[in-house]
Amino acid sequence: MQELIDKLKAEVNLDDEQAQKAIEAVKNYIIEKFPMLEGAVANLFGQS
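^ that's the sequence the OP posted. Answer follows.
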């Protein structure tokens, strides 16, 4: 997941905290809209 954080920091000019919050928001959105993918999303984004 660090690679994604680094990409957000570089391409969108976010700091560490903002990048982590953005990833968490996307992760939660996907799980909310597609609960059947929760396991896959957890594997993709980590269990944080």
